[in-house]
Amino acid sequence: MPRRPAHHPAEAASTRNSSPASELSTQPIRPLSPDVPTALLGNLSPSQFMRRYWQKKPLLIRQAMPNIEAPLSRDQLFALADQDEVEARLITHFRNKWQLEHGPFAPDELPSVTQRAWTLLVQGVDLHDDRARALLDRFRFVPDARLDDLMISYASDGGGVGPHFDSYDVFLLQVKGKRRWRISAQKDLTLQAGLPLKVLQNFEPEEEWVLEPGDMLYLPPHIAHDGTAEGECMTCSIGFRAPSEGELAAQFLYYLAERGEAAGKAGALYRDPRQSAVERPAELPPALVERVGAILARIKWNEQDIASFLGTYLSEPKPSVVFDPPHRPLNEARFIGAARKSGLRLDRKTNLLYESRFFFVNGEEISLDGTKKWLFDFANQRCMSAKRFVTLSHDSSVTARLHEWYCAGWIQVGELA
Ligand code: SIN
Ligand code: CO
């Protein structure tokens, strides 16, 4: 299925290749806590934030995450940008000229960190690093269906991607060094022509701040913004996807067609026993147009079809994603033993969504008999305690399913990463 584009900034998503990525984090990661610390949203509760700011207006939050450390060091980020399956872009603004290159980048292909005005953007870091995934999880007061990815940018002094706007909501979290952000709610979003990236022709900043580590700026779609590094810096950008209406409609029709249910009688052939001889052979027969109109009018769907489409579509991993199945998987009995001791967690690349009693994992709708409470909780918490697993482990249909997911690399043994 064609994919939605990656979120921001500035230009089209690049092609992603695939092969397993290395594990970067060594520190244990705590599972999602149901409480969002009040500092994260500047003393607003998630509901207050959603009501007052989400999709409405920018919000600067000083010390949203005090003592934050970059999930990856500069060298780890550069190493990630050297991997085939990672989407990385290099944007330079040397001698007043914007240039864009797509990765992977070997270390000697990046400019020196002492050179001014360049930036490296690495998309989807949450897929490759558990600390980055844990950071993304802090934003799960927004539905997973909207959560896209965590991008990390490294910029040398003066670096940035130029004034632009994104079509997506984004939290820009400063994690190292300082960045000056200037923003504007201007109506004129005309772009400079002939550049390899989206740079606004007339940027008229209305507000300006220097963000330090722990500070965060929320921007709704279409707010013009420009972030310039003051000294070298790193920024995490937590982005939210928003498929266009046209894309949703096209994908839904594709989904119906794939299920072979669009036109009811999938195998029926067009027939024209009453077709007379024609003098204008190039003309489409009016009866053909009429008949096809009748076929299309028979396309029917209900709410469940829409939910199934959305669940499979939105839980589908990005094309670059390759799961890493265990090299020597435990057999089911040993897997059960291990999970009874240490619990389970979803792999950081796994998407597990549900709608009423229907579940979708990594692009597949799953059918389950019996109780599903455990799966609701697994989906929402992304982990399962050993104690909880023990209560389930007498149900062989559940353990067989979980073992299957473990063998596919979709879940891992151990409640914490
Ligand atoms: C953005 O403007 O969307 C992020 C760019 C950056 O981190 O440099
Ligand atoms: Co942007």
Detailed description of the structure:
This protein is an alpha+beta fold and 417 residues long. It folds into two domains: 46-240, Jelly Rolls (Sandwich); 244-263 and 302-417, 50S ribosomal protein L16 arginine hydroxylase, Chain A, Domain 2 (Malonyl-Coenzyme A Acyl Carrier Protein, domain 2). Helix content is 24%, strand content 22%. The chain is built from ten helices and 15 strands. It has helices at residues 46-52, 74-80, 130-137, 245-258, 286-297, 303-315, 332-342, 373-381, 386-392, 396-407, and strands at residues 59-61, 88-94, 97-102, 118-122, 147-155, 170-184, 207-211, 216-219, 224-240, 344-346, 352-355, 358-361, 364-366, 383-384, 411-413. The strands form three sheets. Strands 1, 2, 3, 4, 5, 6, 7, 8 and 9 form a nine-stranded antiparallel β-sheet that branches. A three-stranded antiparallel β-sheet has the order 14-10-15. A hairpin with a 2-residue loop joins strand 12 (358-361) and strand 13 (364-366). Helix 4 packs across helix 6 and helix 7 crosses helix 9. It is globular and about 75 Å long. The structure holds succinic acid and cobalt (II) ion. Residues 8-9, 164, 166, 225 line the site of cobalt (II) ion (CO).
